[in-house]
Amino acid sequence: MHKVSPPLSIKLSIPSEFGYERVVREAVASFARRVGVASERVEDLKTAVSEACLNAIEHGNAQMPGTRVDVNCVWENDVLMVRVLDHGLRRYAGHVAPCIACKVHGEAPPRGMGLYLIAQLVDTCGFESSPDGGNVLYMSMHTRAMA
Amino acid sequence: MLDDDLSVHIREREGVAIIDLIGDVTTFAEEKITGAYNEVSRRGARNILLNFRQNDYIKSAGIAILIGVVTEVNRRNQRLAVSGLSQHFQKIFRMVGLAQYIDIYQDEDEAIRGLTAAMT
Q1: Whose C-alpha in A26, A89, A96, B99 is 20 to 30 A from the C-alpha of A6?
Q2: Choices 3.40.50.1580, 3.40.30.10, 3.30.460.10, 3.30.565.10: CATH for A8-142
Q3: Which residues of A lie closer than 8 Å to B, measured between beta carbons?
Q4: Model-level pTM?
């Protein structure tokens, strides 16, 4: 019989400035290890969370001074769910596979791979609506091997 | 919060121009990396190794910088390799397709062997 895990959670709030995503990355990684995420997957999560925070800082909060990025992590029933919330000053969505040849040949901008990387590195991800009108990017990761 | 934790050094070994990238590769690394690349190219480098050291953090914006280097390498008909990446970032490089354009080696010695063998 499947054992139901008690929910555990952490909440973080960082200034919307480049560099603070490292604080989130380390905190979420520590939490993920604590709830049993395998070390290789912790590295995946660190990169995914960093990219999500950077998008929130650069796009969702449009690098507006004084804004913040909130990050909520909940572990329940062997799933770690991370939500990254911004003020929604700019909307962004979608993760298109990068055309590396287009980028190398100068036919597409070299940037724009963050959401694609996130989608590749976690089990599920997407956007949720927020009553405050901000962007909410969620990502989840199972904390033990799926049967 | 400052976000510029990358040291870049240039050296040469057995005809290979080595650019040591020590630290994290973020948005702010562009000037240092492209500057080092332009310098070794100015010196006539044909084989270039980006030797990553102590890189715990490579952003997608950092990968975009490397795509810019690949564009120039192709234009100048040079050969580009990387070494020292963690298994995680090797996976990331393959994931975004950079491995099609860059030879990935585990460490500097292996990269030198690979690049010098390709010269002969």
Answers
A1: A26
A2: 3.30.565.10
A3: 15, 17-20, 22, 25, 40, 43-44, 47, 50-51, 54, 98, 100-101, 103-106, 109-114, 116-117, 120
A4: 0.89
